[in-house]
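Researcher: Next entry in the queue.
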Amino acid sequence: MRTPRTFVPGTVQSIYCVIVGKIRARFALAMMAVLLFLALPTFASQQVFNSSGGTATLGTDFVLSGATATNPAGTLAINCPITSVGGSSPLIYSCTGGSFNFQSNDGLTTVTGSFTTAKLYLWAAGGGRGGNVHYTYEFIGDFTGVQDVNGVSAAINGETTAVIGPLTREIGSGSVTAGAGATGINSTYAPIYLTDLSNSQLVRADDIFGDNKQVLGSTGVKVNEFNGPLGVTLDPSGRIYVVDSSNCRIVRMDSITGANWTTFGHCGNGKDQFSGANDIALDATGRIYVADSFNSRIVRFDDMLGTNWIALGTAGSGTNQFIGPQGVAVDAAGKIYIADTSNKRIVRVDDMSGTNWTTLTQSPVINGYMFLFGSPAHVAIDNVGRIVIGDTTNVIRVDDMTGTNWAELGVGTSVSGLSIASDGTTYVAGTTFSGGSGVILFDDITTGAGFTGTNLVANSGGVYSVPVPAAISAVIVAPTSLTFAKENTGTTSAAQSITLTNFGGAPLNIASIVVTGDFVSTNACPAALPGGSTCTISVSYAPTKTGAEVGKVTITDNAFTGTQLVTLAGFGTAPVAGVAPSSVTFQPQLLNTISGAQYVVLSNSGTGPLTFSGTGITASGDFAETNNCGAAIAPVTSCQITVTFTPSASGSRTGNIFVTDNAGTQSVSLAGTGASAAPSITVSPESLVFPAQHLHTKSAAQSVLLSNGGTTAVSLSVAISGDFAKTGSCPTSLGAGKSCALNITFTPTVAGTRTGALTYTLPSGVVTVALTGTGTSALTGWLVFSPSSIVFNNGYVVGDNPSQDLTVTNTNGVPVGISHLALSGSSTFTQSNNCAATLGPDASCTVTIRFIPTVVGNVSGTLTVTESAGTAHKIAVSGTAGTDGGGN
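Model: Structure for this entry, 888 residues:
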């Protein structure tokens, strides 16, 4: 979007009356009723129309309705919602969204769009003794949308301006009549090439916004390398020519990929040599012209072998002399135009002998003024033969070498290249270093209509607009790849969307949309997608196997190469369920009383979530269960099912735990005995579950207590099985009222669920304690820490004693073992904690870190927490101590 001019209400100012050295005003609409515009032949969607009148209001929106437009005749309307108000001179109303609408009177042409960025500027002038404050408003807005001509839609970008005033009052809550305006629109598909001087690259994009951007090059002298690239042009077959200035050569390639890279030239001032080469042009026969700036000459050769090399010019200011010429162009008749930069003139010759040497150095008299060139650096010929010149930060256009109809536009950036598109749009290579945009386009030099700038390249060395002789379809596919989250086999993921946009000027004919791999798609795309329209392709992932998978969406249409691809990636997963132990036996239990709990571990050792279906987890018979399994168990985690026994009748009682999930159905056999009298021998707990333990390492101990509540001693023997061991001892005869304790540890020998039993053999029978644990071969961890580091930096001084708490949380559904917790590093840190050797399912504990600085400076330490499964977590601890101002 352009920068507004400063208005002086009550005076008549011409764009030609601003002094040299200042940016010339882009248009002078406030003082004109209607600007007359000489229409250029239009191709694709380029269109310029002027407007006047209409009713303007300003409230929550800026609204202009009923403005009369010309060329073509019609009606224009603007509605832009105000988003912010700021500034003072001028006051700026910013707005986005809303709508731009144009309807021709003959009904054949419509333009609709939405503002991407827009501003309404308000100036106030006058006052003082005489009062008479005058107010002038200027609206400048960029929009994107659709142009429809005779039923054919095209995607367009545009800029519109409108001036209101001078007024004797602000718009306020009323309405006013608008003044003159100008609108320029261009096809969204407008491919260009730019040289990137800063990065030594050639850039191609489908528009100045960078759609479908491609880049070639890096700094160097090898193939696909440039050093200070400047001018760029194309021949009729699409081959690209680049002035590789600092490498003193011309480069030609077949495409932006660098195919058939060919170079010509080296450094010097003789034949086949260049020094400071700047611009390049081709004539109708394909001969190559180069502005060889530091050698003060223009050279021409037939081909990339330098055939028929000829030079025109020596250093000087006379005929057939140049000083630092930077620009060159050739018209349809073969006449050569040179921007003789340091001589501040444009030169035209009929041939390379200098025949009919003609110069242009200044404008005719315009409103009593004449304008001189400042530093003309680039020259181009438009579609009707007019001469377009880039002069410092201005673009100047004249009809001929007498300067007839001299017009100029300040573009706000140093012009480093010019190109006139096949539809008449002017492209300017610029630089952000000079405070402007890296690339600019506009449609009308007299009004600046359609003025749009971007920083596709920040420091452009040259620009070339690729000819688009007829409206075509152009496509953007976004995104170009989809990655799906892990998905269980036999399920279908949520859909992801691909947007297909036709930003061209002709229908996109879609022949097919095909998807491969374990991916499925649906779409609402028509067989012919109009220009400026979008449609959506929805893709889901439905894996039939586990592991990484790839696929693609292939869209076959009539744009570009005819095929667009979107790559697809997914990862199929599957849960693997396990329950341990597979059976649980309860000790005799008094009728209608609840036993102590025993535990069953439900694990998922697969790659996908284990989800429950149907009844989920249930218990049958005289047994009940509770669990912490939730709706799903993540891969490589477990949950705990707590089972109790409440006998309703004497004798043997049986039941089951059933788990119904997406891995099938798992079951655990349950057994117990109902007793009419309380048993005298009891064990607590009746089962043990150990946290995951790294292979061949010993867990922390858990205790089991056997009690004789009877009146006589009982004999007993003890045995243990599996990867479990016991310490402590029970006597061979346990007296009445006595008990004995054993400490049980787990040392896994192989990975996976490990089961065993602690068995007491008594005269009355066998008492069994079920033992369950999980061995891990890889270092595995489930603890998380908050915060992730401890920092003491709140202005502490020597002698302070602050502390911070670290929360340790078990994210697993079964207990996690903590085998080591220690603080290392500076002795100014100490720790205390309430973390036991086993942290229960989903439980937390707290570590308190204390900082007691003894000296000024920075200190650090590390808190290490090691899980029994092997993972060692290291939490950084740091502190800074200063002085209290008294030397402490």
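Model: The two ends are 60 Å apart (CA to CA).
Researcher: Noted, moving on.
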